[in-house]
Request: fold
Amino acid sequence: MTKNLVIVESPAKARTIEKYLGKDFTVKSCNGHVRDLPKKDISIDLKNNYEPNYVILVEKKAIVQELKKYAKESEKVWLATDEDREGEAISWHLVEALNLDKNKICRISFNEITKSAVLKAIQLPREINRNLVDAQQARRVLDRIVGYQLSPLLWKKIKPALSAGRVQSVAVRIIVEREEEIKKFDTKYNFRVLCNFFKTDDNLKNTFLGELSHRFSNKEEAKAFLSECINFEFFVKDIEKKPTYRSPSAPFTTSSLQQESSRKLGFAVSKTMLIAQQLYETGKITYMRTDSVNLSDLAIKMCQKVIQSRFGDKYLCTRKYVTKSKGAQEAHEAIRPTEFQNQEIEGTKEQKNLYNLIWKRTIASQMSNAEIEKTQVSVNSPNPSFNFLVKGEVVKFDGFLRVYVESMDDAEDENGKDNKLLPDFKLNEKLNYHDIAAIQKYSQPPARYTEASLVKSLEEKGIGRPSTYAPTISTIQKRGYVVCESRKGSERSITKISLINNELKESEKEEIYGTEKNKLFPTDLGIIVNQFLSDYFQNIIDYQFTANIEDEFDEIAQGKIEWRKMIDVFYKKFHPQVEKSAGDSKKYSGERLLGVDPSCRKNVYVKVGKYGPVVQIGETNDPEKPKFASLLNLYSLDEINLEQAIELFSFPRSIGKLDGVEVIVNVGPYGPYVKKEKSFYQIPKNINPLKINLEQAKDIIEKKEFKGTGVVKEFEKNKDLAIRRGRFGIYIKYKNENYKVPKDLDPDNVTLEECIAIIDDPNSKSKGRRRKGKR
DNA sequence: CAGTGAGCGAGCTTCCGCTTGACTT
Reply:
């Protein structure tokens, strides 16, 4: 036992710091908050000055016991939780939960984990900042009140087990509103004119693209312009050269890492965080939940050394980045490698890729600007007010581009890409062209959000924290407010008029538009929940709401206002809204009358029912009960028509016979299924139960029947290896070890070599085994 | 586990932010 106990928030941090502090210090981790409001009810005494009822979290009881024991035996307890609002509160809760002797405690903090920072912190102990703790209590209490008073309203008005909250409800609103914008979007088009020029003295006829500075609003105008181009003499009217530069992006924060890893590696937000956590725990990167772009001096020095030795002094440029994002608390460094000399690491493919991304981004952030020369050549046209513009870009010095280029959310327009390298032009030089084309171009509606771009939007609005971005994205999907999906686009025709060899030609071609890959769409339920909240609680889902209360939390932190007073002002306004909406008997179901069923002459409605979106034929209050049928994810509430609605009542239907037995398709409480004899087989999401044929049904049945446990496949060449099926699905057994396989592994087509590759991937080794080995 | 949806009422659901753990063939 040592004289000093240091408590930090995470075990990985504890391990590192223990090395810095030497044998007089024991460093332990409390693993985040140890006390909180219990889940079962609101646990805030609304009639008694908002007194919170904190309890020790069940999962932290063992840790609290252990810390108590250490604290008792130590002369001093150093509370080294993070240097932000939550960190301060964690320290205070530790004092309360561990019942610490006030004379024993020292509060210290450091926002980078380096030996010098830690040793310096030890020299500067202070008291717990009660104002900051109170700001956290206000935040906690407000979130609990909003969440636990809004959610029950949704259970009553819409359906059970729904939720609402300060953060998630805004996230849903963003998605719903974007969808509305897209729906409202009025697609227009115009004609852009592109010309492939070449120099008259160039026999190879290397072409470069020029675009007319004007777009024509219709085909006739475009055609008229093109015919004027016949036999027209083009020449270079103006040449403009502009030196410019590009600077590297700041090192990663949680949010920017999630965005880049989504764009460059295709990771979902949760996957990025999972892998980053693995890198953090194995000591390869710094802490991954941060809003800071700051690098420690030590990190900058290490970074410079690598840049100098690999690229030379010319590539070096020391930069200090400043956080722009709202409400940033900067308790940590930016996300960076711990050792810059390692560009590559050992690990799984995913770990390697994510690490490499972080390495490049951090290194690039300390490198020189890229110097670029932009050229714009103007070429005359038959209409004196328009010119063809040929744009070029040459990188004169690559600088940070040598290592890293940030990607953009919006894909570049392939026609609009600048010519990278242009030949030398002379003023008034005559130019020939190969062809000129006027192409119909439709305007683009705003883009749907990806998980990562939603995080970006939340961060910009100051809503949510690095530790909650990923969970929030998953909550709104779990509640069924939002789905992340890929959807097929539609076709439309584009008109192209081209001028080749002085001849005008008009052609049509089909273009696919609106294809979406892994984008967020609101569900009917999400739309209705949002409707309810905007009818009664506009102020809560207002984008400014969080920003405004953050200002008040800041005032609490500065000791200017008392936290209970702030909550009281809020609650006095909020609670009447709750009462008012609870009093209105109106249910929110999104009900819509589609028309009359021709066969029974009753009204056909669609709405969101207790079990999801349904079609209803007949009136709710009729003595004869109405009939119901699920929408089955095939249609949305506002798109389904009468005919489609009635077709949903065609179940159960027979689709033919297999082995002489009738096969029935039907919809049950667990979704659409195929039934053969007494067995049920779920129809997968990608098959439309209205259109399923016997062949597909047979497939589904055989796949399920194939199940059972035991060996699925063996290889002649290596009897040690077998593909087996267990309780949790397919896995590989090799000698006495079990290995996880990719979800999409098809045992029929896999080769021995592929199996061996899986075994070699450290990711697939069974965790149970590894733990046993460690003990 | 395989066709619920009225209305009544029991008892359940729910927030945001800090952190990892765990017995998976």
In short: The longest strand of chain A covers residues 234-246. Residues 412-416, 766-775 of chain A have pLDDT under 50 and may be disordered. The domain at 4-128 of chain A is CATH 3.40.50.140 (Rossmann fold).
